[in-house]
Amino acid sequence: MMYLFSSSHPMTKIISGLSMLLLLSACAMGRSNEVQQAEKLLAHFQCNNIETLQMSHSPINSFYQQSLSASREKAVMYIESYKAGDELFDLPLSDVVHQQFQLYKSACEALGGIHPQPATP
Predict the structure, then answer these.
(1) Alpha-carbon Rg of the chain, whole angstroms?
(2) Residue 85 region by backbone torsions, left for phi larger than 0, else alpha for psi between -120 and 50, else beta
(3) Could you give the CA distance from residue 100 to residue 102 in angstroms, rounded to a whole number?
(4) Which is more confident, 17 or 57?
(5) Residue 8 carries which DSSP code?
(6) How far apart are CA 63 and CA 67, in angstroms?
(7) What percent of the chain has pLDDT above 70?
(8) Can you say how many angstroms the Cα of residue 59 is from the centroid of all Cα atoms in its chain?
(9) In whole angstroms, how far apart are CA 58 and each of 47, 52, 68, 70, 108?
(10) What tens digit of pLDDT does each residue of 19-60 get?
């Protein structure tokens, strides 16, 4: 008597293959959603109404200007790494990008700039 669920049965191999394909598709869709959310937030990395030419060149202003650049660059790097399959953190990608956005926003405000408000997820 042959069992339907024995590992040598051809139907078992087909079911296993389809299950694996479904699981991989679900993971890919979840990753895609994470990337989309992070990229939407990245679009809000804008600091308006700051005049760098008229700004005094103090160490604190230099620090905030570097912070603006570094936080955006890190967010872009994290997104690109995630797209390449590298998960650098145990947190969701959108949370990591949001942390960089908070740093960016603080630096923007410290320089007297304003920024668009992202929609909260």
Answers:
(1) 23
(2) left
(3) 5
(4) 57
(5) T
(6) 6
(7) 65
(8) 30
(9) 19, 12, 16, 18, 15
(10) 555 544 444 445 689 999 999 999 999 998 877 656 677 899
When the pLDDT of each residue in the chain is averaged and rounded to a whole number, the result is: 79
Q: By 3-state DSSP, what share of the chain in percent is helix, strand and coil, each rounded to 5?
A: 65, 0, 35
Q: Which long-range contacts (CB under 8 A, 24 or more apart) does 78-81 make?
A: 78/38, 79/35, 79/38, 79/39, 79/42
Contact 114, 48 (CB under 8 A): yes
- Give the pTM: 0.68
Collapse the DSSP code of 48 into the 3-class scheme (helix H, G, I; strand E, B; otherwise coil) and give the result: strand
Q: What residue type is 93 in one-letter code?
A: L
Token reading at 101:
């956005």
Q: Write the pLDDT tens digit of every residue in 58-92.
A: 899 899 999 999 999 999 999 999 999 988 889 99
Question: Which residue's structure tokens are 């570094």?
Answer: 70
Residue 92, burial from CB neighbour count under 10 angstroms (0-12, 13-18, 19+): middle
